[in-house]
Amino acid sequence: MTGSDCLRAISGLKFQFGKGTKSPLTRKRSCSKGVPEPYKGNWRKISIFFDLPYWEHLLLRHNLDVMHIEKNVTNSVVGTLLGIKWKNKDRAKAREDMVLLNVKHDLHPITP
Predict the structure, then answer these.
(1) For a tag site, which of 1, 7, 37, 43 has the least CB within 10 Å?
(2) Structure pTM?
(3) pLDDT tens, position by position, 44-58
């Protein structure tokens, strides 16, 4: 769905947050007249991002998770700098890939 489609789909919806309260005296009736059925669609809440003026026009609205990106990059950099076993990305396979890509010639593995 495009951003415009999403905003159009949720524009008329009313959301009630929380579980709500049920009285122990109420019972379920198979035929309730005049009472609208609660919304049971895909939308559970309206995100605060929908208020951003540019959100509607973004092509990919949900593809970056900054917290995990920071964690993974930090782990890679610290692991490589400190030489922590199983945490760095400097392995023989990575150096062989550099040969295939023809980049970073000074880091190519030396073959006897």
Answers:
(1) 37
(2) 0.35
(3) 777 777 788 887 887
